[in-house]
C-alpha cells in the first residue's frame, strides 16, 4: 500500500511541476492562435522561447527552451526571446502573426509526454497487482 501511495505521489508531482509552453514551426507560426499547440516540456525545462526573423520580426519557431536563448538565436540567425512561466509564449488573441504554435514541436523534438505515460502505466500496474 505504501509503494502504491509513493508511486501515485511521484506521478502527481512529476506532472504538476512540468513547464508548459506553446509550440509552432514555420508555416504553423503564421496561423495565429489557431496554430498553437500546448505541450508539457518535461522536468529539466524552465523556459519557453520565441524565434523571430531578424528582418520581418515575424515568429517562425516557438517551444520549450532546452539551451540558452542566445545560442538558439545564433543557430537560426534570429532574434530569440524567452520567458519563464507556464504558457508565457501564448499569442495574443486576434493578432496577426503573433507567436503561433503547431505540430507539437519542441527544439530537437523531445518526447516530453513519454515519461508521464510510463509513470502512469507503472502506477496502474501497481494498483492492480
Structure overview:
- There is one protein chain.
- The protein is an alpha+beta fold and 129 residues long.
- The protein has one domain: CD59 (Ribbon), CATH 2.10.60.
- The chain is built from three helices and five strands, in the order αββββαβα.
- The chain has a five-stranded antiparallel β-sheet with strand order 2-1-4-3-5, with helices on one face.
- A hairpin with a 5-residue loop joins strand 3 and strand 4.
- The longest helix has 15 residues.
- About 15% of the residues have low confidence.
The H/E string reads: HEEEEHEH
Corresponding CATH architecture: Ribbon
Radius of gyration: 17 Å
Average predicted confidence as pLDDT: 76
Give the strand order, joined by hyphens, for the main sheet.
2-1-4-3-5
The proportion of strand residues reads 15-25%
Number of strands: 5
How many DSSP helices? Answer: 3
Compact summary:
This protein is α+β, with helices and mostly antiparallel strands and 129 residues long. The protein is built from 3 helices and 5 strands, in the order H-E-E-E-E-H-E-H.
Features:
129 residues; alpha+beta; CD59; five-stranded antiparallel sheet; 5 strands; 22% strand; elongated
Amino acid at each position: 500500500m505504501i509503494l502504491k501511495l509513493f508511486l501515485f505521489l511521484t506521478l502527481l508531482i512529476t506532472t504538476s511541476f512540468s513547464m508548459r509552453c506553446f509550440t509552432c514551426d514555420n508555416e504553423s507560426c503564421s496561423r495565429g492562435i489557431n496554430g498553437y499547440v500546448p505541450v508539457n516540456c518535461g522536468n529539466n525545462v524552465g523556459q519557453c522561447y520565441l524565434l523571430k526573423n531578424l528582418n520581418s520580426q515575424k515568429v517562425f519557431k516557438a517551444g520549450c527552451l532546452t539551451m540558452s536563448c542566445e545560442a538558439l538565436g545564433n543557430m537560426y540567425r534570429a532574434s530569440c526571446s524567452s520567458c519563464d512561466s507556464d504558457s508565457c509564449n501564448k499569442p495574443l488573441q486576434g493578432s496577426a502573426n503573433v507567436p503561433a504554435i503547431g505540430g507539437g514541436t519542441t527544439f530537437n523534438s523531445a518526447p516530453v509526454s513519454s515519461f508521464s505515460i510510463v509513470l502512469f502505466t507503472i502506477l496502474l500496474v501497481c494498483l492492480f497487482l
